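The instructor's notes for this session suggest beginning with a concrete chain rather than abstract definitions. Hand out the sequence below and ask the class to guess, before any prediction is shown, which regions might be ordered.
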Amino acid sequence: MDRKKLISAILCVMLVTSLFSGCQAAPDTAVVAGKNDGVFESALNSSAEPVEGANTEAFSYTDKFTSTDGKIEFNIDVSDIKYSGNPMPVIQVTPEEITPELAKRVAETLYGEDTTFYEYSEVGTKSEIENEIVRWTLFSSYDYIYDEYKDSPLSPEEIEEAIQIEMEANKRILEEYKELYETASETEEQEECLWTFFPSSHYEPFSDENKTKKIRALLEINGVSINYNVSNRMEDDYRIQMIMSFIHSPDYTTDTMREAFANSGWFVQEKPDAETVENIRIQAEEMIEKMDIGEWVITGCEASYSGYYGGYVIYVGVAPVYDGVMVTPQTQLSNLKSEEEYASNYYYETLGFTMAADGTVIDFSYMGPLEVVEVINASTAVMPFDELMERVKTQMSMDDIGMYQMFNPGDVPESQVTDRVEVDITSMEFGLSRTKIRDNPDDFYLVPSVTLRGDYTLYNSSGDMIETGMEGVEQTLLVLNLVDGSVIHYDQQ
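After discussion, reveal the predicted structure:
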């Protein structure tokens, strides 16, 4: 990957999608009829010139239209649109493996070169394993399991079958603990991190997962245990390249973890001021540049109260930049094993921090790094804005009411059946989006795209709003390829 200097910029918007939380995706959008097959490939073979007299000033756009079935009303009201119609790049990229050197460099950047990192272990000492053997001996007993089913509505035959299945499973765990006991140490012996990838089973005693390689390290800051976890998998079924760091210890219970939170001093009750947030933004930029992981831009830096941590923390969202163009953030893929036609088996490239007001990194995530194979066309022609909006309306008007049903109409009262929808499109983001390459299962294209976001409200046949808990929550509604107008499938279940 080309190593470039980090762009120092911040967009003054609140993070729409955080690496540490997700939100419901919009309904699947139908594929527009006639996807201009061949237009995209043809555009890659010829370079376009900048548009003469292109509009470089921000502008607004409003419009209304309905779906072909008349059930969905689309309202577009977007301000501060920045789109000149000038050529944009198409770039071929491929997953980039995380090396031990990078894993160590990122860890030391986050927590300091003087920090001692230890090899992660869930094995425990002989005395700890003895306690587990006592517990699982109890869990494996017939009488103990039988007591769990005393109020079960199952038949006696079904209860007996369930007991036998659970008993056999618990006995297998018991035997594994007995095997671990034979080689366990009398005292806890921490070994410094080797910065070597091992099969997952090396760190997880009862796992037989060997295709995913990992580096797992433990460190302690202010009495809080941090788990630094690096994953490396390049298999045909799915691929993972990822670094994650978070509060965790194999010895933590809910109570001891909450106690560690309280004693750390990281989670403040008063919202950090603008100066503190700005200092965190600068710190994040400096850390990213030191990691030497390519060109990135801060997309959001916001102080927010966390119920989980019990205090204010600062979330920093970051997006990659290629050939001077930002990759538009999308909801992270939730299923790498999806069998959908357009499914991807590799996470989107993302980077994010959760930080304390004093600058301590609480959570960190770096997923899906990419390496540039080739800039296919640095000056690819994109659609004029008017043509783009016609494509948007053509595409979205093909939505039908069935795509917005929260439940099977036959399974819920009439009051929960969607009969009408209002869709409000409130933002348009232009940048690059990742898409699969035809007949190439390994690489991707980063293509010019527009991402439409907004929210929608559902109504029943009586005109009453159906409560979904998502009203007013901005979410992605459509992503289009600006070269040929085809739909880019950004999500998968």
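Then share the key points. The mean pLDDT is 87. The longest strand covers residues 440-459.
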